[in-house]
Design goal:
- Keywords: FAD, Flavoprotein, NAD, Oxidoreductase, Redox-active center.
- GO terms for molecular function: monodehydroascorbate reductase (NADH) activity.
- Belongs to the FAD-dependent oxidoreductase family.
- It is an enzyme of class 1 (oxidoreductase).
- This protein has about 475 residues and is of the alpha/beta class.
- The protein has three domains: about 1-125 and about 260-330, FAD/NAD(P)-binding domain (3-Layer(bba) Sandwich); about 130-260, FAD/NAD(P)-binding domain; about 350-430, Enolase-like, domain 1, CATH 3.30.390.30.
- Helices cover about 25% and strands about 30% of the residues.
- It is built from eleven helices and 28 strands.
- Strands 1, 2, 3, 4, 5, 6 and 19 form a seven-stranded mixed beta sheet that branches. Strands 8-15-9-10-11 form a five-stranded parallel beta sheet, covered by helices on one side.
- Strand 22 (about 340-345) and strand 23 form a beta hairpin.
- The radius of gyration is 24 Å and the shape is globular.
- The protein binds flavin-adenine dinucleotide.
- The site of flavin-adenine dinucleotide has 36 residues, from helix 1, helix 6 and strand 22.
Amino acid sequence: MGRAFVYVILGGGVAAGYAALEFTRKGVSPGELCIISEEPVAPYERPALSKGFLLPESPARLPSFHTCVGANEERLTPKWYKEHGIELVLGTRVKSVDVRRKKLLTATGETISYKILLIATGARALKLEEFGVDGSEAENVCYLRDLADANGLVNVMQSCSSGNAVVIGGGYIGMECAASLAINKINVTLVFPEVHCMARLFTPKIASYYEEYYQSKGVKFVKGTVLTSFEFDSSGKVMAVNLRDGSQLPADLVVVGIGIRPNTSLFEGQLTLEKGGIKVNGKMQTSNDSVYAVGDVAAFPVKLFGETRRLEHVDSARKSAKHAVAAIMEPKKSGEFDYLPFFYSRVFGLSWQFYGDNVGEAVHFGDYSSGTFGAYWISKGHLVGSFLEGGTKEEYEAIAKATSLKPPVEDLAELGQQGLNFALTISKKPPPALPIEVSRSTSGLVLEKPVYAWHAAAGLVLTASIAGFAYWYGRRRRRW
Ligand code: FAD
């Protein structure tokens, strides 16, 4: 016999913390909710691990970054869960789930049953071994997904002050770790196979800004090649990395950031999977009515794109969790999840935000030497994505709003000239209040009707906004 709960959250990461807060707001009763997590600590803001946690001075440490401080909400300490009668089953891996019988089996041998299950198992870091390279077990080879990884990285970092670090992978984790290591006065070389960093998001022009900035901080880039093997010393520590291009780099520390894989294995053969994750509908409900999925593991319909996507970003984890709980607790009141994809990163003194989708043609704007610049992505005649570095709160809100409206854009050169002012103007002048019906065009893009009213409004806005351009580019920069 095991314990029984009305609601069980499987996984104790970002989404779990935001879901717990929402459950209490929606009136969950003490004793009804349980969170089971393999990690030994209550849910925390994972993005802190590659930023504040790695700082040499006053680094962030728990309990300061428990969820939900990242969204300026309450900080949920273990005491908070206790006070709300939420059972935290920590340091406990769930090894199997029977969705038909509504039961979980933990690695400690306990069976826990539920009425409603919320899957928030996130993802795991891909290992080098999955690419045919051995050596992940060496004590100075680090990954960064959870608190234990972050503690390991800090220990190795502290033991190799002024030493050499090789960072494998030029995506989020690689870029953020490289910056943090450089701040810790470690010599960093970043190695990746693509032609520029953040290849899945950045254009070559955006990437070159960040690469030059990193280089000014002493970070070296080795592009177009991959790690093939390590050289070990007699104690099994890595001393150097060998690259496919034949070169060798000395290494006191290696950080590997080569991607993640959603933790879906418990549900294979039981729930429908798509895009590498667990497929859910607009209420975050899986193919089994009693099971919901949120965060990195969920593949959900993104209305704005008219297709199912799986996102690996914190904002989507927070908001999908909140939406799922509303759908569970107030099914009649809650609608379909209508989410504008949002990613951000902060490295050194830089800070960027991206909204929407980076498909179609990129139009760059702003002065790339001033520290405030960006790009829009135009697909099938509409704005579908916006990127901004060094913006103010108002400017970030403007690009978010403009992207969500998907205004038509006819003249790309003019758009580039208007730059940020385009988003600022569009976001302040919504189209006339006509009923908006969401429909799918033949191209598969979701368009908002009536399109003709939009074209007319945007045309006027485009003309009116040119005058404001000089003013906006002369404004003082404010970070938030
Ligand atoms: P997670 O937060 O990964 O939580 C999953 C939880 O499930 C974990 O606690 C795990 O132990 C548990 N679990 C899994 N399987 C089991 C099991 N079988 N039994 C029990 N427990 C289990 N995103 C951004 O947008 N901006 C950033 O700047 C940013 N920085 C990041 C920095 C780092 C270092 C990392 C790792 C990620 C970063 N992200 C960032 C991504 C963001 O943190 C994730 O999108 C977010 O954590 C996803 O939340 P989640 O709850 O779905 O998964």
